[in-house]
């Protein structure tokens, strides 16, 4: 067992070193170092993969005698990792890496010049490789199962379909109703917000949520993200727009939510492959819980709005609470996913989920994708992208070969409400505490029920234990109906 | 050959990733992550060591057929690396790492409390391990040869002894003469120097020297250093004292000098173990050349002093050139090595070199070290440390197990003058160019003669080819006699 632990700790160290190389690339790396950095990341990831799939690892796993429950979980989880990692031939991994490398550049160019044809042949290749990848990984019902399982272990396509289809049927009419209601103005959050003040205000709130800067830090990057190099080193990045309050502030809360998850993992798992989020959906549930369920709710701003008014007197000084609160909760269908509000966001995801399945099943040819995209966008959200740059070309994911990733965003939204409701039941004065800027009890509840487990429990198990039920869209729909029914009078 | 190259490139990538982990530790890492970071660095260094000494590497080296001169050099240099790395049993490496880990903490405490007894048993252990290390590595004449060779390949103890003894005999009287002369005041460089202005001024000059920020960057750290993750990513750090001009400015020039060396390595060596400085002495010659031979000479300040007066009007506005120039060149024996001026610095090194040999040979017992230190300090520099914190406990090196390292500082000083003289011969209007802030031709000369080679040529070979002679103290002594004879009238 000790040899196994040592070996797995070395693999984890390699992956975390690769993560630091990537963090550095997005934050401080000089621009001329991109090529050598790409080689270094590839080397470390390959070495980690080789060590994981080596005969010695397999033998150690076979003969390991667990000393504890953690050991037993470690053996179980890593056996699965090894099985998956062994199934895909390294020639296919290399082919996918090469295709992604070429495709990313083509996508960037296609998006800049608004010319889908530049990206189309690459996307066809990516889809073809994804199908082969799925065949190599194996699946029960449909190749898409294998792709989804990479990001949301144990979740099947049919499960997601059944949850999403109910959601879509309910959500499209809600969006339509809101579109026809008197719109809420969001002009208040557009104005002058000095960068340093935004930086400090966001980070102060993140710390009050419980984000620990002795074991984390915040830096600037073009695309915000969170990353962990150990349980004791969990970092976030933020992008600040001096003319727009939302991206900096809610982005910080979102990334801090991710970071709180990783900082809350049982220290006994440090250095092991169990010290990670259990799935992307569960990870997203934590970022969304803090960003939206806390950060966009009324009690939160009862505490923080007076502070925000002091920090941003020019923008908020003369604005009453209700106008501000409506401004951060305005719903307006937009063609762009990353700019979407709480209500419409899931429709963006479901659109991608459907199209991904259609592409993998060969039901949609690449060349027809832009039209399909725009048609569904119009049917669901009532708007038609003016061009492919704000349509099918807007996201980087497919160009990197990540098919099966998008659904986890919506799963995270749904889980965030299920978990928040369970926390509210367990902590009857949660709103009261939130309105006083006190988050210790909520964080403790999340640590106990979600964070501490790392990968020892699956997302399904965590959800069931914490909420008493499996994944469901109903709680999220009820939350939306209540919150936005109040705001939009329906 | 291709398999060998790939394998060596992976080893290099691992070492460079470890270097990034270390850089991050000194610049941005949150304080609570020290323990996991130490484990990660150790993992990557061990993996690199294992890959280097693996049978497969040995076989590849044995059967490699070089396609080029670079390949031939690669095989030759790496064979030596493997031989050395294989000689030391991993049990001894582990023992040394453990001793260093314990010793560093003891040294810190000893230094803080000014109590040598806390450090003494650890130092005894370090010395004992260094002897065993030397025995494992093997040597011709004396165990110290093996220790020195780790940092200055090919240099022997007797070579260094012969160069240093001549140097000491000449230098001690010079220091005495200067100590008895009318002192130069350095009060001018003590004053108010705003941090941001220092930062920008130092970095501007470094860039004008040729330091390329597309392939480098500057950050803050407690102890300044330079480090490279590839030829295209060579970074420096700086520490700025708002009340003292020298550490920030000359520290930046020093580190930029190191960085220019690594940025100037032949791009064809990228990713290979040849893409590194050839020895610590040669590396130090580059930092010292820019810091002292250029950065403390008269033509340099003819160009930059007017700029410095504009940047620091409060401190330099009313100060004439000559007073400033004397202020940055004032000689004053100090007990502290890192605060030493150009003239006395080498005596600090020679003191350590002698004591190291005495310890390794068992001629000095650890308990007698403080007295020996203070006695020689008094004899050579005319001052006696008031306590061990500013005496034998001042440097971190021994606590880390680095014995044989110190001499390279003085070797760098000597080489810097030899190389500068050769460059001056080749570029008759070097002073003129310096006085115009133009360094392209000097940098080109250094790249051609020193930088480009990486580890393809030894320090000895570079010195011989570039200057026509081997290591010698005479040029340095002549430089000191001339420059400080002028300043101190002797």
Topology:
The structure is a homodimer of 490-residue chains.
Chain A: H1 2-27, H2 34-53, H3 55-63, H4 69-87, H5 90-113, H6 116-137, H7 143-151, H8 157-180, H9 195-209, E1 218-220, E2 226-230, E3 233-238, H10 245-263, H11 280-294, H12 298-311, H13 313-316, H14 321-327, H15 345-360, H16 369-381, H17 407-426, H18 430-434, H19 440-449, H20 459-467, H21 474-488
Descriptive report:
- The structure is a homodimer of 490-residue chains.
- Chain A has 21 helices and 3 strands.
- In chain A, helix 6 packs across helix 7 (143-151), helix 9 (195-209) runs parallel beside helix 10 (245-263) and helix 17 crosses helix 21.
- The N and C termini of chain A lie far apart (60 Å).
- Chain A has a 3-stranded mixed β-sheet with strand order 1-3-2.
- The model of chain A has no long low-confidence stretch (mean pLDDT 96).
- Chain A folds into 2 domains: 2-87, no CATH class; 122-490, Neurolysin, domain 3, CATH 1.10.1370.30.
- Chain A has helices at residues 2-27, 34-53, 55-63, 69-87, 90-113, 116-137, 143-151, 157-180, 195-209, 245-263, 280-294, 298-311, 313-316, 321-327, 345-360, 369-381, 407-426, 430-434, 440-449, 459-467, 474-488, and strands at 218-220, 226-230, 233-238.
- Chain A is globular, with a radius of gyration of 23 Å.
- Chain A is mostly helical.
């Amino acid at each position: 067992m000790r040899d196994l632990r040592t070996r797995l700790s070395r693999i984890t160290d390699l992956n975390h070193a690769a993560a630091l190389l990537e963090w550095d690339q997005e934050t401080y790396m000089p621009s001329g170092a991109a090529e050598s950095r790409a080689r270094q990341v590839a080397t470390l990831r390959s070495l980690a993969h080789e060590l994981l799939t080596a005969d010695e690892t397999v033998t150690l796993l076979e003969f390991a005698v667990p000393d504890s429950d953690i050991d037993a979980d470690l053996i179980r989880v890593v056996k699965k990792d090894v099985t998956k990692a062994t199934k895909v031939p390294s020639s296919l991994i290399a082919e996918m890496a090469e295709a992604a490398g070429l495709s990313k550049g083509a996508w960037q160019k296609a998006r800049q010049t608004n010319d889908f044809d530049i990206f189309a042949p690459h996307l066809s290749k990516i889809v073809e490789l994804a199908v082969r990848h799925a065949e190599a990984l194996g699946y029960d019902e449909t190749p898409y199962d294998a792709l989804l399982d990479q990001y949301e272990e144990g979740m099947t396509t049919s499960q997601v379909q059944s949850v999403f289809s109910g959601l879509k049927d309910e959500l499209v009419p809600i969006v339509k109703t809101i579109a026809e209601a008197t719109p809420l103005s969001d002009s208040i959050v557009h104005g002058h917000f000095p960068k340093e003040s935004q930086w400090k205000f966001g980070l102060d709130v993140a710390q009050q949520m419980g984000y620990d800067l002795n074991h984390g830090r915040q830096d600037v990057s073009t695309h915000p993200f969170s990353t962990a190099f150990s349980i004791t080193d969990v970092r976030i990045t933020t992008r600040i727009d001096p003319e727009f309050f939302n991206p900096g502030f809610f982005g910080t809360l979102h990334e801090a939510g991710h970071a709180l998850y990783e900082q809350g993992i049982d220290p006994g798992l440090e250095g092991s492959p169990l010290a990670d989020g259990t799935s992307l959906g569960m990870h997203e549930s934590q970022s969304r819980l803090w960003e939206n369920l806390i950060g966009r709710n009324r009690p939160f701003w009862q505490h923080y709005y007076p502070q925000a008014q002091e920090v941003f007197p020019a923008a908020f000084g003369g604005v009453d609470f209700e106008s501000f609160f409506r401004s951060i909760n305005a719903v307006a269908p937009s063609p762009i996913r990353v700019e979407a509000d709480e209500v419409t966001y899931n429709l963006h995801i479901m659109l991608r989920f459907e199209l991904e399945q259609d592409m993998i099943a060969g039901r949609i040819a690449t060349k027809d994708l832009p039209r399909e995209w725009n048609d569904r966008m119009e049917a669901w959200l009532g708007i038609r992208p003016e061009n492919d740059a704000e349509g099918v070309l807007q996201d980087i994911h497919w160009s990197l070969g990540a098919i099966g990733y998008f659904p986890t965003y919506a799963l995270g939204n749904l889980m965030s409400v299920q978990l928040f409701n369970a926390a509210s039941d367990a902590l009857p004065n949660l709103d009261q505490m939130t309105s006083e800027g006190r988050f210790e009890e909520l964080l403790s509840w999340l640590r106990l029920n979600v964070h501490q487990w790392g990968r020892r429990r699956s997302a399904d198990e965590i959800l069931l234990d914490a909420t008493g039920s499996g994944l469901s869209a109903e709680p999220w729909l009820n939350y939306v109906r209540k919150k936005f029914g109040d705001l939009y009078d329906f």
